[in-house]
Amino acid sequence: MVGFHQNLRAKTLACALLTSCLVATLSATSLAEDTYLQEQQTKKSTTPEALPLDKNQKEAKRLFQAVSKLLSQTAQERSKAHKLPSESDFLVPPLWRETKEERMKDIQDLLDAALDVITDVPLVAMQNRLDQSRSAINTLEDQITQLREKRLSAPDDALLPGILNDTVTSIDEEIQDLEKRIAANRDAIEKAKDEIHLALKQSGLTVTRDQLDLLLGSVVGGDMIKMVAAYQASHQIDQRLADLMTQSGGEIKTSRRYFAMHAALFAMLLHAQNHIIEKIDTVYMRRMGQILSDIRKARADTRRLLRGRNRDDQKRVLNANLKAQAFSERVALFYRDYLNTQRAQMIRARAQTRRDLRIADNTYSTVEASFQLRALIDDAKASFEAMQMLEAPGFDQVFKNEELRREFENLTEKLVPPSS
User: Fold this and answer.
1) Of 180, 154, 153, 179, residue with least CA distance to 169
2) Which of 251, 10, 1 is nearest to 123 (CA)?
3) Has this prediction a pTM greater than 0.85?
């Protein structure tokens, strides 16, 4: 199975409003950021070749302003959690004393809020538009099916056709209108794919259009696109932290606060990776197992029927059913392998993130010189750029064969939980 490997250069986080008691504590961070930006702008304006902030710099500024307070709060909560006793330290769970596990639940809520905000970016918006168009097509196709059934008993003529009463002609016109809307949504899907393809390329990820179709057509496509956005954001945010640490002039208290926020980035990425792995394990793989079980039961039943006395036309139908079931199983097994590939690459990324987080936490608790903190942030750039390797099986023929494509998309719909 051939994977496609490219650096995604980025990581995750987002912002949420903090309680008023934290505003005073965190205002120094925002002030330092504003001061830094003003200084940079002043330097640029004094040179003849000065240019305005480019698109990437503006995005980095926006991201940092969005997440700096949340990062700082998460860092404080993680620091407090490390000092709390663990539930395993007690024979009986304590009633009046907070444990590390209880505090970690609050931290998880912060990280969830961070992910929600940090992934509210153009790349994810493109994915959402694509999903909305697909959903609209499914709805429109259902409406066409209902109209065709209604057409069977519709009269050829009636009073005010299409207004008071439906006729064959009015129903045909309505079906044509729905088909035009389906075509428009399909065009929107292709446009969204083109935009996503370009955005991924600009992020450093080069994929073929067939590979992109495979990714976006799968049940994990949305999750993977969000991870791309999360890595991009984290990479940019971490650079801002490194710059601010330099601007602090070596003041250890300020530097340590920025470094704690740097560690919080890894905590958020680890949280996001755990979420995707858990979803694959507990939702998609379980549902895929049930789908394969249903296919095999149907095939066993078909074979039992074939052993009985059947007319020639019945034999033809049952043999056709066996071929269809074998085809469905083949696509389902491919889909399962695809999910396993995505899970495996996410586990590798998680192992690196977990190690980076442990090193950051260990350094934060022992280091005494701010230049050592800055050096570790600089070293972490390699992790941000190489941590995530987006992989997909090289079954490009899936989306070159219309029958395989339809079966793949049908499986995607079955794998999505009803509440999604």
Assistant:
1) 154
2) 10
3) no
